[in-house]
Amino acid sequence: MGFRERRLGCRLYVDRQSDANILKKLDRMLVDGSYSNQTELIKRGIELAYEEVYGEEGGRSSGMSDVDIKKLAGEIAGALKPEIEKLLVKYEVRVDTAETPSSPTPTLASTHDAPQDNTASVPDDEVIIPSQTFNFLKGLNDD
Question: Where is region (Disordered) located (predicted)?
């Protein structure tokens, strides 16, 4: 099964300064081994031009170098960071409100049979627990 071919023509003139600059760049990239031949180099140039014009990738997923990937990842992280920080603050507020103890329910307070008088003399090394705290702890113990 043969490949269907579509040729693209481009003439560059060594005497024209802009073309001469492009030819120098082309030769350097081929000598450095960045691309195996002119066809691969031209394909990549067309893909980059397409991305520049249309803002999307031109169908080549493996064309990005490690530097390009790191740069893109940095841009994505920079764009997402404010949104993530907003969500984090929002969830921290939710956690803080969930962790603050609420007042005990009336059913817990009514089940407590201990005397409510906290004015009895207490030795210095003992701590008086408020009745609300005691009722809350008793309710947890009953569960």
Answer: 96-125
Q: How far is CA 77 from the centre of its chain?
A: 5
* C-alpha–C-alpha distance, residues 95 and 124, integer Å: 36
| pLDDT higher than 50, residue 58 | no
Q: Where do the DSSP E strands lie in 1-143?
A: none
DSSP states of 19-49: HHHHHHHHHHHHHHTSSSSHHHHHHHHHHHH
How far, in Å, CA of 137 to CA of 92, rounded? Answer: 26
pLDDT tens, residue by residue, 109-132 = 555 555 555 555 656 677 777 788
Q: Are 42 and 48 in contact (CB under 8 A)?
A: no
d(CA 98, CA 76): 33
